[in-house]
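Hi C.,

You asked whether I'd gotten around to modeling the 476-residue construct. I have! Everything is below, sequence then structure, no commentary in between.
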Amino acid sequence: MSLRKNKSIRMEFSLRLALIYTSALCFSLAAVLSVTYQLVSHVVQSRDHDVIQAQTVQYKTLFEQGGIDAVSTYFNQQMGTSSEQAFIRIIDKNDRVRFVTFSHPFWNLLDQQTNLWSRLSAGVAQWDELFLDESMGSWVAGTTPLAPELYLQVGRSNTASRRVLVHFRKTAMRIILPAIVLSLLVGWLMTRSALTPLRSLIDTLRRIFSTGDLHQRVPAHAQKGELGELTTLFNRLLDQNETLLQVSRETLDNVAHDLRTPMTHLRNATERALLQPDADQETLRDALADCAEESEKILQMLNLLMDMAEAGTGQMTLKTESFPLHELAEEVIELYALVAEERGIKLENTVPVAMSVCADRLRLRQCLVNLVDNALKYSPKNTEVTLVGSMASDAVELSVSDQGIGMTSDELPRIWDRLYRGEQSRSTSGLGLGLSLVRAVIAVQGGTVDVQTQLNKGSTFTLRIPQTKTLSPPED
């Protein structure tokens, strides 16, 4: 039922837009035809009035020269030479006819006009249009004062003019009706084409809701404009949501997997202390120490997983600043100086003193700590771990080299996976999250991490950080 409702809403919207297009077109067309009709009607009417006005002037001149007899004589002379009927009449204010060319129903229609004499009181000519029926035709008449108490009436058939206007109206109707149908069809097709991205978006959402498949995407269309941009932004939103859900699933899986061991140790330490009611203070202290150690491991693992989740989804906040790279390397060396001394490993800082880098200092230090910690874990005694810095054309490179156990070619592609630990590294403590975090954090800053390794000869990890303006500005 929901699908039918959505479809009806979509069709109603399409039809509504099509009706708007049609109404606008019909209104414009009707306005154009109406103005044209008024212009044609004015031209036709003006022509008839001009002809009658010319005849009126001619007969008034004849009347002034010889009275009604002159008008009658002129009319008798023209009867044989003109094919057009002349409707001419002279009457007084009492409606008595003093002269008429011939009897015709036209005069009866004119006599039936109300307020004719009151309208002539101002001495201005009056126009009347008379219509009998389709077979008899129509006329236009002009009445003008001729002399005191005498009026000249000149009429003319305007049937041909009326036929022109009737033909115009019929032609306009023949144009408007097909135009309405055509505009409705074209408007519907245009609306359907314009709403194609919107229909695709609705269909994609419907498939996602019905199947739960987040891999569904709205098909890309060649259409540009707002709807095309909406499709692109919606697909990007789906990509981001899918990434967030995928990272959430992986994070939950990783947490569930990695919490099992420290939680088991924590529980065992607690149970051992509880099962010994007569345990001395030293035994209880050892149990508490074990609990504290396992809790620290859990907290450390959760922090790393949260950092990787933020980096993987692009939500990690960066505070970009320019600082000396040699100084940062020296801080990390001082941090691990005691550990390196205990293991008989030499830490060497060869980063140029004048070299600076534009990056997030805290996050870069976190990456460097992870790399140095790994180098110390997997390096034998009497070896050296070296920090090297170099400047490329558009990037700063910071390398950590060791002379440790190295890695095989089979292990190399998997070292970036979360929780992965190689065969030779299983005997040492660790979570298997350090390299994954390093790669994610450097990627957020637009950089890359490369590694060169040889089995039993050592490894070199290189952080490459671009020095461009695309890095996020520091936040207050």
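If it helps when you're writing up: The mean pLDDT is 77.

Thanks,
B.
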